[in-house]
Amino acid sequence: MARRVINKKRHLGLQQLSAFADTGRTFLGPVKPSKFIIDEESHESVVVGSTVRLLESLDLSSAVGQLLSEAVQAQHNTYRTGASTLLLLVGAWSSAVEECLHLGVPMSLIVSGMSEGLDSCIEEVTSLQVPVHDVFDHIDSTKIFSEVESLNVSLCPFLQMPSDTGLILKERDLKDVASQSLTTCSLSERPVKSAKLFRPQATVGADKNTSQTPQTLRNSLLADSRCRQSVLTHSRHCNREASDQWTSKHGAAAPQTDRCGLGELAVGLSHGDHSSMRLVEGAVRLQHQNTSVCQSSWKMPFMFDISRVFTCCLPGLPEAFSCVCPGYVTVVSMFSATVLEDLQNQPLGVVLIEGDLTENFRHLGFNKSANVQTVLESMKKLQQDSSEELWTNHVLQVLVKFNVNLVLVQGTVSKHLIEKCVHTKRLVIGSVNGSVMQAFAEASGAVQVSYITQVSENSVGRGVSVTFWRSSPLDVGDGISRMAILLKTEGINLVTVVLTDPVTAQMQTKEDRFWTCAYRLHYALKEQKVFLGGGAVEFLCLSHLRILMEQPLNKGDQICSGGLHNTSSWLASSLALYRPTVLKCLADGWHKYLSTVICNTANYSSEFEARTFIQHHLQNATDSGSPSSYILNEYSKLNSGVFNSGISNEPEQIPRVYDIVTPKIEAWRRALDLVLLVLQTDSEIITGSGHTQIKSQESEGFLFV
Amino acid sequence: MSRLEAKKPSLCKSEPLTSERVRATLSVLKGIVASCYGPSGRLKQLHNGLGGSVCTTSQSSALLANLSVTHPILKILTTSVQNHVSCFSDCGLFTAILCCNLIENVQRLDLTPTTLIKLNKHLLSLCTSYLKSEVCGCRIPVDFSSTQILLCLVRSVLTSKPACMLTRKEVDHISTLILRAFLLTIPENAGDHISLGNSIIVPLKGQRVVDSTVLPGILIELSEIRLMKILPIKKSDSLKVALFRVSLSGDLSDTGEGSVVVSYGVSLENAVLDQLLNLGRQLVSDHVDLVLCQKVIHPSLKQFLGVHRVLAIDRVGAALMEPLSKVTGTQPIGSLGSISPSSYGSVKDLCTAKFGFKWFFHLIPNEATVCSLLLCNRNGTAWDELKLTCQTALHVLQLTIKEPCVLLGGGCTETHLAAYIRHKTFNDPESILKDSGCTSTELQLITEAFCTALESLTGSLEHDGGEILTDMKYGHFWSVQADSPSVVNWPDLLTRCGCGLHNSREELNWSFLRTSRHPFAPLLCLPHEAVGSANNLTLDCFTAKLSGLQVAVETANLILDLSYVIEDKN
């Protein structure tokens, strides 16, 4: 990697930061061009499609580089999204902070001013949060899932549904069906008590429905939500189940009405990656179906449990083969696959082994004594079989005894054992993911064990079925033919997303993108709120900071505001003088963010044009007096380039864009934390064996203690 | 064949302090510690230059532990500071800077080391007896019936470490947690002899700081979520606990050198496993509900216990053993032989809890003086710094309960003390001269050096080019922007003194700290109403600061007293 020439008179750490951060600029926004990274020594190259993968491939061994990669990793590991935002803001803020230093702003004031500014922005942007309520109550209905609190509803575009009478009628039908089946359902479940409890609610619901007119959609929405709040939990469940049944019968209505609930949320969060998001949505729907079928979980509200989603990458297949399957899809060798002919279409007994299934495997924490020797006392006892053979036979005996035909192993499996098992029509699969094991344990009643000797009748699971996922063999890229198979059991809470791509090099990128989308939807559902996306939040920060800059600090505020911990210092009194500069520096970060997004989505050819465009809107927003209502207004028009991703093919159907809340805000915080941490660092101390070197940034040379 | 080599002669250097190299390295060390001092102190990146982890810090403990100094004089200094920090946690930088300042100032004087040392000692005792006296004007008694002073103390500790990267809201949140954690370690029924419990800091990196929390009892991280399903059924109002120190993994204990010979067909592993299962049977027949093991439990034993509804938690770790034994009242079991019933203990309840992405077992003891502080911070390096800082704050609270008073922080104690010493030696030099047999000029010189050392220490609080003033009434610390016009209306320019007790509207006179001024008597005895009304004070731990002062002066004396350094070069 070529590094920018770093001017020695300025803050080295900040310059390094902005140089590193610049590499990831193009990954921001919905259009993410891939990058080739070539190792000049080994001539190996990789294609990277995300910030995290990019930083993994770069040499970040310097102290600042390491802090940067630590911060990106921390964000990625916690939220799986927001790494590009973090990286870009790190770059933008470190150059802006450097500029501040250049202008002579005291360092402590930069630190306090920027954290205060960010806090204030974070508070401000809560006005752009959209609550996500009970998406799954309306998973297949025409219901709108969100409302904007404390704002005039007309400002929020996606509440203005086309007042299509047909849709409403359908909805009424659905409701009626629901309320009918609701009583029966409740009667069957809780014969006496719940029937009494339900009836009033059911009639209220019906009344509302009959009085509903197309013009008063919003009213009915509110009424419905009120009604929904008062309905008991189990009634909601029954309601949901009923509507599910209904849509499965009248499946044709589903795609048409689908966009309002989960569908719209998913599209809004896809950020241009519709194909991945479609798979995520499919996974959520499958999981939801699963949990609502499963009677035991009726008390719990549905949560998108991402640990029960699993990906299986099959490079070499055309993209169209990507799909979502209930159960576990994995790849086995052609040899193992031969047993499938016999095992198909019958319930199998399963054993789950955590750890390896080899003779020499011992559980973690077991120390083998090296100095134990075995001696033979007489030749009579000598057997022909090796100990491996003995062990394999023992394993087979156990499998036969408990009538087990399928063994899932978390670690590796002895090759010899696999062969033996295939001969006796048993399938052993190694390297199975831990959460897959867990899912099979729950669904089949199996108990995970470490050793085959632990297997007992109680620890064997029953009722697992196995089939070919696809009848023809596939080549996963290493020239060896394998078969993809599908393992399933009744009620298993496990969804496998099969990802296919004809280009092997893109497989990683594809998987990463899938997970990004999955986590985005996961957080939206978990937090029950989303931001209006497409730059709306950043734009609000920008205009909010502009207003803050112009606001004079009043003397009374001075001591409590400003973010300074130490209010007695002279810095507190000179805060007013430097505050606008510092806030402008903070605003520069989002300015850069927005212009980069706009440039990357190719709405504007140059950054200059993008900046002019932002400036124009910024002026309008400030002039309007209330930036947040300006944004909501513009958002409802949806023709303004700031707020749409601009990559939709159908201009009349531009989907709304949403963003997740906490991961975004945390990415901001992390970015600022990193910049401020580096800003406040004045020297690097290299600790080593024997001698210590201190590299001071002011005096360049090494100082020895 | 062995070869004998003539021993190298030892290297002997006289007057080590006069060497240019020693002075230079001393000033580098002082530069490092002084630039870290205070809430706006600069941070240092510590790393090994080979891609190891990077530690960003401004704490003396982290700094000195990683700084491998070579010169014996510096070693004396760093070792005494480290000793002080290990006993008191706080005021390490204070000690180091003061010691460097004293050496530097005193060196300029043309006086014999004996005189220097004698007078330094006198001045030190003057300081300590003043700080301990009732009339001390920079000391506040702690009222344990309100949290105000204690919260200020904790907050001062937290804000003095900028690498924790806390916003003001987060500082408030963490301060409250630390205070709560501390209060949870105080036993409810205190007899004559109080023994405080401990707060265990549980790491939860990557989460938001405001997600940090305090829970009574102990949290044990869970590696396997599926264990949740087999929570024991409570038969009575408490659960019977067995705590194992010995590994139950089923391996052979260390067989020593040589080899063990066994005959074919004998499996030592199975023999050990049988023994473990016997142990399991005893645990079950003794109606134990919960088995905790520091190390690993054999999967088969776990399965056996699970079948009998006994919950087994392994890999608890050495750090938790002591608090676990204390909380449950168990004797940690160290052998696989039979267990004496007296080694069992009990807990009130057990549940699982999820914080961030981690699952924990939460052990709720019958009588709790142990609590868990679940500490979150966004990135690793800031978390490490926050952990050290929280430990310091908890320690400071413990010291404060022993000696229930605090000192004014933010530089005010130092400037006040300097004013007091100056005044004392100017007005009443006889009492010192009588004992020491020095001249009054010598006394004045040393006093000046001593007081300047204290005052320039407070100057190290300023890192953005501000200037320090002191008022002529209280002798407190005031900071002002550099290059302020000479004739100004000070009350307009100044806001509050360093500790936050006084504000500039009090009709005070100010003078620059660096200029000389006539000795004045700072106001003794803090007015009570002033302390009661101020709610945002910067405070320092009394015990730690007093010890820091003593260590600094005594170490400086020791270093000044060195006339030879003898190095064995072999």
Automatic annotation (TrEMBL), chain A:
<dbReference type="InterPro" id="IPR027410">
    <property type="entry name" value="TCP-1-like_intermed_sf"/>
</dbReference>
<dbReference type="GO" id="GO:0051131">
    <property type="term" value="P:chaperone-mediated protein complex assembly"/>
</dbReference>
<dbReference type="InterPro" id="IPR027409">
    <property type="entry name" value="GroEL-like_apical_dom_sf"/>
</dbReference>
<dbReference type="InterPro" id="IPR002423">
    <property type="entry name" value="Cpn60/GroEL/TCP-1"/>
</dbReference>
<dbReference type="Pfam" id="PF00118">
    <property type="entry name" value="Cpn60_TCP1"/>
</dbReference>
<protein>
    <submittedName>
        <fullName>Bardet-Biedl syndrome 12 protein</fullName>
    </submittedName>
</protein>
<dbReference type="GO" id="GO:0045494">
    <property type="term" value="P:photoreceptor cell maintenance"/>
</dbReference>
<dbReference type="GO" id="GO:0005524">
    <property type="term" value="F:ATP binding"/>
</dbReference>
<dbReference type="GO" id="GO:0005832">
    <property type="term" value="C:chaperonin-containing T-complex"/>
</dbReference>
<dbReference type="InterPro" id="IPR042984">
    <property type="entry name" value="BBS12"/>
</dbReference>
<dbReference type="InterPro" id="IPR027413">
    <property type="entry name" value="GROEL-like_equatorial_sf"/>
</dbReference>
From TrEMBL, chain B:
<keyword id="KW-0963">Cytoplasm</keyword>
<dbReference type="Pfam" id="PF00118">
    <property type="entry name" value="Cpn60_TCP1"/>
</dbReference>
<dbReference type="GO" id="GO:0048513">
    <property type="term" value="P:animal organ development"/>
</dbReference>
<dbReference type="GO" id="GO:0051131">
    <property type="term" value="P:chaperone-mediated protein complex assembly"/>
</dbReference>
<dbReference type="GO" id="GO:0003006">
    <property type="term" value="P:developmental process involved in reproduction"/>
</dbReference>
<dbReference type="GO" id="GO:0005832">
    <property type="term" value="C:chaperonin-containing T-complex"/>
</dbReference>
<keyword id="KW-0143">Chaperone</keyword>
<dbReference type="GO" id="GO:0006457">
    <property type="term" value="P:protein folding"/>
</dbReference>
<dbReference type="InterPro" id="IPR027410">
    <property type="entry name" value="TCP-1-like_intermed_sf"/>
</dbReference>
<comment type="function">
    <text>Probable molecular chaperone that assists the folding of proteins upon ATP hydrolysis. Plays a role in the assembly of BBSome, a complex involved in ciliogenesis regulating transports vesicles to the cilia. May play a role in protein processing in limb, cardiac and reproductive system development. May play a role in cytokinesis.</text>
</comment>
<dbReference type="InterPro" id="IPR027413">
    <property type="entry name" value="GROEL-like_equatorial_sf"/>
</dbReference>
<keyword id="KW-0547">Nucleotide-binding</keyword>
<dbReference type="GO" id="GO:0060271">
    <property type="term" value="P:cilium assembly"/>
</dbReference>
<dbReference type="GO" id="GO:0005524">
    <property type="term" value="F:ATP binding"/>
</dbReference>
<protein>
    <recommendedName>
        <fullName>Molecular chaperone MKKS</fullName>
    </recommendedName>
</protein>
<dbReference type="GO" id="GO:0048731">
    <property type="term" value="P:system development"/>
</dbReference>
<dbReference type="GO" id="GO:0005813">
    <property type="term" value="C:centrosome"/>
</dbReference>
<dbReference type="InterPro" id="IPR002423">
    <property type="entry name" value="Cpn60/GroEL/TCP-1"/>
</dbReference>
<comment type="subunit">
    <text>Component of a complex composed at least of MKKS, BBS10, BBS12, TCP1, CCT2, CCT3, CCT4, CCT5 and CCT8. Interacts with STUB1. Interacts with BBS2 (via coiled coil domain). Interacts with CCDC28B. Interacts with BBS12. Interacts with SMARCC1, a component of the SWI/SNF complexes; the interaction takes place predominantly in the cytoplasm and may modulate SMARCC1 location. Interacts with DLEC1.</text>
</comment>
<dbReference type="InterPro" id="IPR028790">
    <property type="entry name" value="MKKS"/>
</dbReference>
<dbReference type="GO" id="GO:0005634">
    <property type="term" value="C:nucleus"/>
</dbReference>
<keyword id="KW-0067">ATP-binding</keyword>
